[in-house]
């Protein structure tokens, strides 16, 4: 099967390698000519898992190529997903199937609402990978990935066709809940680690950080309950505590974005949550506070 992947970050290349190994054809849609030249000079990308490195030679192209797209995987940062989709919109075949795999919420729902005739899937993953050099991926942790169809359009065949790609890939009939659970954990951990400039585990070591996290979690539990969204069997704080402990040595994606002066995913994480809270009329001051604080950091410096 032919796949196009837009978003050649860590998850994009990880999936390119998985699809490639399962016998699919993959073409990476790169951001610009410079990236394309860089890839072509390199000739391949590599993935290192437990000190074993594999090289993958995959096709690369730009968005303005004209070949039709039948299977599209969008793995950009969440804030870039809609623009990425629009950049290849004209190339979509009638039978196209689209899978979005990124943090946060909002873009997935927007694409479904704007394109009711398309088959659109979304996923959530706990896979971890990072680059130690351009096109050199280090697999940090092998995680679980759940995917499910968001659109009314289509059927579940896509899952059968890619199930062999990853033995920890699961089909869910309720992807919305899966996305909400990941969102809740990200709201609890990501902004605070970015603001305190600390590792995930450092959030639960100090009383003031724990208190801020507990307040954020309580607001999310309240909004979820009022919106009829089932999160976890227990309080979010308990769940988030375990994730912070389990990933204690990790830097969250938002902490990394802020420390590298990159745009963050705050609008599709805490920003999305605060909008839902407003819709159900519940005040969420702790979440609002971290939203504003990260927005301030993200603003370009005028001076
Ligand atoms: O998903 C994450 C992220 O960093 O974006 C968590 C769960 C916080 C792990 O680092």
From TrEMBL:
A GO term for molecular function: NADP binding
Family classification: Belongs to the ketopantoate reductase family.
Pfam families for this protein: ApbA, ApbA_C
UniProt GO cellular component terms: cytoplasm
Alphabetic keyword roster: NADP, Oxidoreductase, Pantothenate biosynthesis
Enzyme Commission designation: 1.1.1.169
Domain Ketopantoate reductase C-terminal residues, every copy: 174-297
Catalytic activity from the UniProt record: (R)-pantoate + NADP(+) = 2-dehydropantoate + NADPH + H(+)
Pathway membership, UniProt: Cofactor biosynthesis; (R)-pantothenate biosynthesis; (R)-pantoate from 3-methyl-2-oxobutanoate: step 2/2
Source species: Amphritea japonica ATCC BAA-1530
Enzyme class: oxidoreductase
Its biological purpose: Catalyzes the NADPH-dependent reduction of ketopantoate into pantoic acid.
Lineage, top ranks: Bacteria, Pseudomonadati, Pseudomonadota, Gammaproteobacteria, Oceanospirillales
InterPro entries, A to Z: 6-PGluconate_DH-like_C_sf (IPR008927), 6PGD_dom2 (IPR013328), ApbA (IPR003710), Ketopantoate_reductase (IPR050838), KPA_reductase (IPR013752), KPR_N (IPR013332), NAD(P)-bd_dom_sf (IPR036291)
GO biological-process terms attached to the record: pantothenate biosynthetic process
PANTHER family cross-referenced by the UniProt entry: 2-DEHYDROPANTOATE 2-REDUCTASE (PTHR43765:SF2), 2-DEHYDROPANTOATE 2-REDUCTASE-RELATED (PTHR43765)
Protein name, entry field: 2-dehydropantoate 2-reductase
Annotated Ketopantoate reductase N-terminal domain residues: 3-151
